Amino acid sequence: MGIIKKFSYVLGFGVLGLVFTVASLFFNNVELADRKAAADIGFGWPMVWLHQDQTILDFSYPTTTRFLSPWQYVSGINQVGLVVDVLLWSILVGFLILGLVKLVKPRIEIRHSTDA
């Protein structure tokens, strides 16, 4: 396998890792006991990398909230957590895709060889 093909795999898995990292924000639910807990809500999986301050919203406590908007209420971003999440998602997606290709590719080759 050439270096360009390897680089394209790494780049593709990296982009997919970034997409899954951002998408994971929207699937986190956080339980809040009081208004003080709404001041710093952490989102991200498996590491928390984005923090929101949702004290401006009028909740009745206790409540469950989720990530609201990428450009509203953001109080901080942890770059290390973001990089770790992107790397973990990239590795997970890479193994999943390469594993599926290994499972499906022999079946496709067998089917094509018997068609002749």
Characterization of this structure:
About 50% of the residues lie in helices and about 15% in strands. The chain is an alpha+beta fold and about 120 residues long. The strands form 2 sheets. Strands 2-3-5 form a 3-stranded antiparallel β-sheet. Strands 1-4 form a two-stranded antiparallel sheet. It starts with a helix and ends with a helix.
Nutshell version of this structure?
The protein has 116 residues and is of the alpha+beta class. Helix content is 52%, strand content 16%. Strand 2 and strand 3 (50-52) form a beta hairpin.
The span between the termini is 29 Å
Radius of gyration: 20 Å
Question: Mind summarizing the main beta sheet?
Answer: 3 strands, antiparallel
Number of helices: 2
Helices and strands in order, then pairings?
Elements: H1 3-25, E1 29-32, E2 41-43, E3 50-52, E4 63-66, E5 74-77, H2 79-115
Antiparallel strand pairs: 1-4, 2-3, 3-5
Q: What keywords describe this structure?
A:
116 residues; alpha+beta; 3-stranded antiparallel sheet; two-stranded antiparallel sheet; 2 helices; 5 strands; elongated
